[in-house]
Amino acid sequence: MAQPTDGPVSSRPVTEPVLNDGDFSAAVVAVTSAFGDPTRRHIYLFARESELGVTTAEVADRFDLQPNVARPHLDKLAAGGYLDVSTERAASGAGRPSKRYRPSEKVVGLDRPARRDDLLVTLLGRALALVPPAEAEAMAEQLGEEYGRSLAAHMSPNEGQRSFRAALHAVADALTAHGFAAHAESRGDALAIIKEQCPFGGAANEHPVICAVDRGMVRGMLTALTGGPVRTMVESSRAQGDDACVTFV
């Protein structure tokens, strides 16, 4: 028998937060970048099935791949935040430490933004507005660079330096996972990272100084992955009304 209630019960279904067009586009790009390749999807599922995680050698053996083919798939999943990376030495203690990839807690889906908090971003913008413009930009860029370095350390713990182009693509993957819908490309004699979306939303339009954060992230990741130093230069910005944010490196 149904229990009585103290008041009327709404018949309207409880709805979950939905993505706006920009967030949805960024989420699609992020998931497609990580799982658009069938082999990479199988590798991710293989890693999820393993309680101890997987190594490059194990993935190469399981899918009949060369290690130098398996490794970029694992690194791309790690850059996107879908796999966590740790290093471990052989029982003998000799030889180079091997990297072990384990599934992260990140949810693969399009139901809500993965890495966006409107309140914190808005408060960041207002806090920076209280500081003189030059100091605010330097502060935002420094914060971004420090965060970029920490991301790079997670992507390649105890690993040697990467080539600049390989590092650039890894940075684009990491930015995409953070909602920037980024890719790397050549423009004339220079290399650039193109960001089609911005996870900072309207706060960046109101406080363009926030854009210094992602510029710092790019420099921080590239410096850590390649051994730097790396210089960055912004050509265009969505916050200034351009179609995309373009950062030359």
List the keywords.
four-stranded antiparallel β-sheet, 249 residues, 14% strand, alpha+beta, 2 domains, 7 strands
In short:
The chain has 249 residues and is an alpha+beta fold.
Protein architecture, described:
The strands form 2 sheets. A 4-stranded antiparallel beta sheet has the order 4-5-7-6, with helices on one face. A 3-stranded antiparallel beta sheet has the order 1-3-2. Strand 6 (233-236) and strand 7 (245-248) form a beta hairpin. The protein has 249 residues and is an alpha+beta fold. The radius of gyration is 21 Å and the shape is elongated. The protein has 9 helices and 7 strands; from the N terminus they run ααβααββαααββααββ. The longest helix is centred in the middle third of the chain and has 23 residues, at 133-155.
Mean pLDDT: 75
Name of the top-level CATH class of the largest domain? Alpha Beta
Q: What is the terminal-to-terminal distance?
A: 69 Å
**Order of helix and strand elements from N to C terminus:** HHEHHEEHHHEEHHEE
What's the shape? elongated
Task: Compute the number of structural domains.
Answer: 2
CATH topology of the largest domain: Muramoyl-pentapeptide Carboxypeptidase, domain 2
The radius of gyration computed from the alpha-carbon positions, rounded to a whole number of angstroms, is 21 Å
Q: How much beta, percentage-wise?
A: 5-15%
Count of beta strands: 7
Structural class per helix/strand content?
alpha+beta
Uncertain regions: pLDDT < 50 for 5+ in a row?
Answer: 1-19, 110-116
For this structure, the quaternary state is single chain
Number of helices: 9
CATH homologous group name of the largest domain:
Trafficking protein particle complex subunit 3
Helix content percent band: 40-55%
Q: What is the level-2 CATH architecture name of the largest domain?
A: 2-Layer Sandwich
Spatial order of strands in the largest sheet: 4-5-7-6
